Amino acid sequence: MFNAMPAKVLVIRWAIILGIAVTNCVAQALAQPVGSFSDHLLNRAAAPTPAAFHVRTNRLLVGVGGEVRKTMGSGAAGTPDADLVYGSRRNTVLRIRVDAQRERLWILDIGAVHVFDLAKNRRIRSVTLPNWVYAGHNTNCLPDLQLDSHGAAFVSDNLQPKLWRIDPENFSVHERSVTLDAYRTLDVGFSALTITRNGALYAAMAAPGLLWRIDTDLFRAENIPLSVPIQGACAMETLDVAKSRGFTLFVMSAGRSSFDVKRVTMAPGASVAFVDIAALASVAAPASLLEAAGTLYLARPEAALPVSRERRAKASSFALRPIYRLD
Q1: Beta bridge partners of 261
Q2: 35-325 sits in which CATH class?
């Protein structure tokens, strides 16, 4: 009898341990956001093409490899000309934005941001991003760069819920961790940023398909419940201001072989944002989502974009395709 007791105790102990393990697994599964890294693989060949439209010169600026070049015109198509705005054999252009009011081009490189004066065609400043990380893996989108109405830049990376703010006057950089009000254990960066004209900043996480509204004074993020997740959200734009916490956003979602542009709307007072499952546009080629003069455009190459060993972009044509206009 006494010899049997240790075996029973051992069985009971293992049963308790197994029960705790199962409970923890269930709890962790329930705590996960909709989707995961393995649920949504991206086509790296279809990574968003960095592009921005320069209104004054009526030119599309395109980033390919380590270069930013100008294209001619905004009509049906244009061809990159000899105007090399920026070029580096070592680095990779991830995102570009134009500050039309100040005639500046902002370029997000790996670990740094470069600022150019477009009127004088010269570099103003290069800013290193402290503690910025980047993973070029096919389960996540690229980091993003956005500008507010004051000319300040906000930069994300794709592995941490952080933002880097760069001052438009002295180009000082401030690294800030963003406090999430939900999914607090989530260790994922923001893949798409957009800022409304009244300064509201929205951020998407590609892998879990989550959307956030970020207070840029306190750097706190409020999760916005969605009717369906926006997985693969690699670019985001808005054509209107946020009104009474309502908004309309346009999200470009990158899948295995195509891009889909979908509209996300939040009515004032609503508790859930509606994601329209019908795409405004779909395109198979690498593309970029951009806004100019109240119109939403897809900028996409009409030909392949090969890059030589010297990382020099070969000439290719681009087309600006209007897909939505705010009435």
Answers
A1: 252, 281
A2: mainly beta
